[in-house]
Amino acid sequence: MSILDIRVLGDPVLRKETTPVTKFSDDLRKLVRDMFETMYAAEGIGLAAPQVGRTERLAVVDVEGARYVIINPEILSRDGSGKAEEGCLSIPDIYGDVERAERVTVRALDENGAAFEVSGNALLARCFQHEIDHLDGKLFIDYLSTLKRRAALVKWELSKDEYPGNVRKILSEVPGAHHHVKGEM
Ligand code: NI
Questions:
Q1: Chain CA centroid to CA 160, Å
Q2: Distance CA 146, CA 98 (A)
Q3: pLDDT in tens, the chain (185 residues)
Q4: What is the whole-number distance in angstroms between the Cα of residue 44 and the centre of ligand 1?
Q5: Which residue in 37, 56, 86, 131 is the catalytic one?
Q6: Most buried pick, 57, 112, 115, 155, via CB within 10 A?
């Protein structure tokens, strides 16, 4: 397995529409494994293919041990709504409150091409919605009010030099290190 570079805000790949997966090959399954490894190393709870520079319609999720590969996902139903703070592995250190459906049911394929449906509440529902947005070229900052988005972008301008070429290098986890996990996705 290998840890992949994460693309950050400013990389055009994050705004591209993804392409549905039609071939469930060993290469695809390797990409899925690498995306999980990258997500865990970056201490995220979700990661979508565009975030590692790919255009497949695919994301991985692990919210409190609920682990899913969602390929060609679609949201079948949405219920309720709630606002909570979100962060994104592709926009490090920027957070903002986003209103999302409280519960969603998603239909997707797994890495072997098998169809499944999953319903999730709260953070899992939020993570599914955030990742599926990534597959449509949408980012959480798009939901912020004009004022809050402008403030977030000003803050981002000050830190984006840390990511030359819009690339964020992820290091392997240091055993025993203490991390403050905010649950970026
Ligand atoms: Ni994200």
A1: 19
A2: 13
A3: 899 999 999 999 999 999 999 999 999 999 999 999 999 999 999 999 999 999 999 999 999 999 999 999 999 999 999 999 999 999 999 999 999 999 999 999 999 999 999 999 999 999 999 999 999 999 999 999 999 999 999 999 999 899 999 999 998 766 555 555 668 99
A4: 9
A5: 131
A6: 57
